[in-house]
Amino acid sequence: MMDFDRASLLFTAEEAAKYLRLHVKSIYRLARDGKIPGRKVGGSWRFHRDALDLWIKNERGTFQEH
User: Fold this and answer.
1) What SS3 class is residue 52?
2) How much is the pTM?
3) Contacts of the segment 41-47: beta carbons below 8 A, 24+ positions apart
4) How many other C-beta atoms lie within 10 A of the C-beta of residue 19?
5) pLDDT tens across 36-58, in order?
């Protein structure tokens, strides 16, 4: 299990997927479509933890609660 302490501010796509509990393909699709905050750096996607936290907070109304 990964330790997501405050020192881990910048995630790879794989780390972002684990953090958000999504499939990595979903992360790539969301990033490509501009639906999740991320940047391409040297051909690889990077995601700032605080931006992901804000995104999930703002998107929570679109998730279905069970």
Assistant:
1) helix
2) 0.77
3) 44/12, 44/13, 45/12, 45/13, 45/16, 46/10, 46/11, 46/12, 47/10, 47/11, 47/12, 47/13, 47/15, 47/16
4) 18
5) 999 999 999 999 999 999 999 98
